Amino acid sequence: MRGTIEVSGSSSDLQPAPLTLPAPVPPRPGPDGTGQAQVSEIEGAPLYVTLGLNLDAPHVAAAVPSGEPAAVRGAQFAALLPGSRITAYQSPDAYRSHSPSQAYLDLRAEPALSHLADANVWDLAAFIWQSNTTPDGLGEGRRLYAQNCAACHGETGAGDGVYAAEVRSNFGQAMSTMQATSGVPANFTDPQTMLGASPALLQGKILRGGMGTGMPNWGPIFDDPQIWNLVAYLYTFQFQEEFK
After folding, report:
1. 69, 86, 95, 169: which has the highest count of C-beta atoms within 10 A?
2. Distance separating alpha carbons of residues 156 and 153, to the nearest angstrom
3. Structural domain tally of the chain?
4. Has residue 40 been placed in a domain?
5. What pLDDT, in 10s, does the model give residues 187-212?
6. Which of 8-17, 88-97, 100-109, 156-165 has the lowest mean pLDDT?
7. How many helices (H) and strands (E) does the chain have?
8. pLDDT score, position 243
9. 157 lies in which domain range?
10. Contact assessment for residue 145 and residue 230, using Cβ atoms and an 8 Å cutoff
């Protein structure tokens, strides 16, 4: 069990006030001439806006692991990369702007890791993700999830919470077809979608809400550190959680 659902009232009681965000803008060229914007380039805007992410576009992972990656195994492979390379992968900018699938493909292309099995490279990706959080941070993310998310997304993240059927029904009526309810509420145990989502993308979905799915926009409720801690916790549904 990953947490205890702490909910009172109906799902309509969970709706905070609407959040107004600036319109997304294209990412600015970085110092090296690429389109990689830095976190600080558009001051005051959420990172997903700075990066120009489309929150509604599909984010299917280009690669998924055959098993559950573990950071504790991946730690031993970090030393195979030059110090500057592993530091670059572990930087908050790289972590927040890349999906685990993107990070895996980048790591897979590293000559120093060419002899590793795919599972080992995924373990290294899990280690990079864990290095961007702390036991206290994951603890807060776990608490926030149990209190605010598990009712719809389920205690195990499978999209099967106590309000899930109601959310699907309401969303289906709004869309005039139940075919549109696939993935509502989101299933965080699905590697195809979760490993294709960057932390910045998940930040945006939490800030903005579900746009007709019944998911509230949590921007007025959570502060920035809380959102990043919640995002870090969501990845524990894909990677073995080392911090208990």
Report:
1. 69
2. 8
3. 1
4. no
5. 999 999 999 999 999 999 999 987 66
6. 8-17
7. 12, 0
8. 64
9. 46-53+61-237
10. yes
